User: Fold Trichohyalin-plectin-homology domain-containing protein from Paramecium tetraurelia.
Amino acid sequence: MKTSPQSFQREMEETVWHTRKQRQETEKDIQLMKNRLKLLKRGDAQLSKRIDETKKKTQSMIDLKTNHHQQIEQKKLNQKNGEAQLKEKQQLNYDQKKQQEEQLEMIKKAMEQIKLEEYKKIKELSIRNAEMINKQKQDFMVKNREKREHIKEIMHKSKSNISLYWNEKLSHIQKENEKAKVENKKACEQNKAYQEKMEMEESYMMQKLMRSQEVQKKLAIKLEKAKNLPHDEFNQMIREEEENSNNLRVNKSAEIPRWLPTPEKDSAIIQDLDTEPKQDSDQQKNEDNQQQQE
Assistant:
């Protein structure tokens, strides 16, 4: 069975992905180890800090006791007024010294106890962190193993079914191509018919526009002429327009437009604006009537 270029490329990509996953697993293991070492170092730093603080407190107490002892010694030197006083001072010094020794012993035991407790806490924390890190690592390894097994199964199925896949894919492509050819042919026929319809509509609209422009031009000339007529001629023109309008109403060849303002009304009936014979005028009015109905 021949392997297609696409299948070969896919196998190469899966191999690269597998090696990349192995590298990522080793990098994650290293990161987990770094985190554990970081926690141990942090615990050691905290313990050292507390030990230093305890040492400082102890030294401060020792200095305080030393100063106190020096003061007592100075007082003892100043008091030399009798044997009883000297014995009393000696006893006092003995008691103070003994008290200092007891205090130092207590401080020493307290420091040892603090160190022991801190060590136990840090050890317990380290153990818990190590257990948590190991558990996370085990869970991560189990999940990766399951993923690798799943990927191997998918790769095996893909290799065994690659011929069937390509045959189905080629058959599907051929069907889609045939379907696209039929749809494109149908769309071309529809577009051609629609284009012819649009061309006819365009021709009709151009003719209609030319007729409308001519009517508008004649209306403007007629209106301008009416403005300059004397009153008698103006009324005569209105009567003629009304007679023509009545004829148009009888023939039902045009609607009444509003075009000529007069003192009596705001509209007049459109008629043939040319000075040509009445036959040409009726033909033009019929065309205008068809335009208005459209």
Q: What stands out?
A: Confidence is low (pLDDT under 50) at residues 251-281, 290-294. The chain has five helices and no strands. The chain has two domains: 5-160, 205-293. The first helix runs from residue 5 to 78.
